[in-house]
Design a protein that fits this description.
By secondary structure, the protein is an all-alpha fold. It has 12 helices and 2 strands. Helices cover 74% and strands 2% of the residues. A hairpin with a 5-residue loop joins β1 and β2. α6 runs antiparallel to α9. The chain is globular. It starts with a helix and ends in a 5-residue tail after the last helix.
Length: 274
């Protein structure tokens, strides 16, 4: 346990150090929903620190090496896709419907569509890798896992439109995931918990935003963890929730509806600088 604590401290320090360096990069400066200049794609700090955390845990044998490598590959791939969209994405095209519409009507691939395709292909490959780790290959579990991974990645991205919302969503999902398994597999979340907690003050104070480079890998890693740990029934239930959430988000304003419900409004604003 002392080694795990050392990893937590290392990941937290590395996250803070990386954030300071990202703040010096003009290419990553963005305007948030209030027009304030913040660090865009600041989730890169979380991804980089978590990669090192998983590497150390796998090297020491605290975490199965196959699981550690799988999480590292997932975070890296979805972070690269997210960063591409952060830097070169078209902000005027919104949602999957908008990207598909642009493709069909204008015969043009938006960067968001590239991310969708890359994320889908990556999810299929990663889900097949999960089957290998589990020592069995079943077509239904492979396809189910790929869809859960892809939709989980996008779900966190949909939340990343206001300070702290995506972080709170990840913390809630990860704690729910560990609760479903009664604590089994919690160690895999340690690098992400340590890095997100170290990053959180900047997000809560509207100094930084995860960006696609941070939100997508957080969701994808949760999806990977679920395909490794949850039963088939639990995964199907999660899939139905994810589908319902995406259909809702395509047709409604999540922010507007949160503002209408007192409890959700309080949770959304809790801890965020006024």
């Amino acid at each position: 346990m002392s080694f795990v604590i050392a990893v937590v401290l290392f990941v937290a320090v590395w996250t803070r150090w990386t954030l300071r360096n990202l703040a010096r990069q003009p290419l990553l400066r963005r305007r948030n929903y209030r027009g304030e200049e913040v660090i865009g794609s600041a989730g890169l700090a979380i991804v980089g620190a978590s990669l090192l955390g998983w590497l150390l845990l796998g090297w020491r044998g605290e975490l199965r090496w196959q699981e550690s490598a799988l999480l590292m590959a997932t975070a890296f791939w979805f972070s690269v896709l997210g960063l591409m969209d952060d830097i070169a994405g078209e902000t005027q095209v919104k949602g999957w419907r908008g990207h598909f519409s642009t493709l069909l009507k204008e015969r043009r691939l938006t960067m968001g569509m590239v991310k969708v395709i890359g994320g889908g292909v990556g999810a299929l490959i990663l889900s097949a890798w999960v089957m290998g780790v589990l020592g069995q290959f079943q077509w239904e579990r492979w396809l189910l896992g790929a869809i859960v991974i892809a939709l989980s990645a996008n779900a966190l991205n949909l939340l990343d439109v206001r300070p702290s919302r995506a972080l709170k969503g990840f913390w809630l999902l990860s704690l729910l995931g560990v609760g479903v398994t009664r604590g089994d597999g919690w160690l895999a979340f340690v690098p992400l918990w340590a890095s997100t907690l170290a990053y959180a003050p900047d997000d809560f104070r509207r100094k930084a935003m995860l960006g696609d480079a941070g939100a997508n890998p957080l969701g994808a890693c949760f999806g990977i963890w679920v395909t490794l740990r949850w039963s088939l029934t639990a995964q199907v239930l999660l899939l139905l929730v994810l589908i319902a959430f995406h259909l809702y988000a395509e047709r409604r304003s999540l922010t507007a509806d949160i503002e209408r419900v007192a409890l959700l409004r309080w949770l959304d604003r809790w801890g965020v600088r006024a």
